[in-house]
Records
---
Amino acid sequence: MFEYELHQIRSAELRRQADEARLVREAVRSRRAARRDARQDAVPADDAAARESHTDRRGRGRLQRAA
């Protein structure tokens, strides 16, 4: 009987931890979405493509291809 009660306690604790982790993930997702929306509102449409690419370099890289 004692082992069963320990199992129930552990199971309830794991459920609480899973619920807490779920809430944290949801909060992080909503904060990211809010930041993304705020950033998109602040960036002009023509500059949006440049911001999405993580580099200002265009075309080929610095090194030429070997023959």
Note: The chain has a mean pLDDT of 83.
---
Amino acid sequence: MMSRNLADTRTRILETAWKLLESGDKAVRMSDIAKGAGISRQALYLHFPNRAELLIAVTRHIDSVNDVDTRLAPSRAATRGTERLETFIAAWGGYIPQIHGISVALRAMQGDPEAAAAWDDRMQAVRHGCAAAIRALAIDGDLRGDLTEEAATDLLWVLLSVENWERLVRDCGWSQDAYLREVTALAHHALLAQSRT
């Protein structure tokens, strides 16, 4: 029963932090989160010894709630590099709208090392997915010959940045379908030995 209560409290903390971060307040403090979750600051620190750990846990909680593993399953199960590339772009590109609010919040907290660490943790996970897709292309012999795997990973990672999605979908008014279609085409042209559409 005790462990159930601890798990419930942890979930309440994560949900509260998520809500507060997405509200746009750049100065979300541990005391704000504790108050919102209905616990003392001391109780909060029993679950999360520091703010960096809490913010990273929030981003991972969001991934869990949104079932990222299921989204990524087709990419991970792909038998060809091009299939892995396309399904990874679809999974991540389709996920950006759901995490956009928290991304804005964490990126807006400039100069906050804990927020930077939380955002970097998630972006490194995306980079890992990019590297896996590029590796699969290389194994198949489909990666452009003049690109190293590292350079190709860099290109794909930048192409799939949240900032690029924001510019195209939010600022330029592209539909989500148009974004996915054009980003996939760009990835083909930029990365494949023989461009395929």
Note: The CA atoms of residues 8 and 84 lie 37 Å apart.
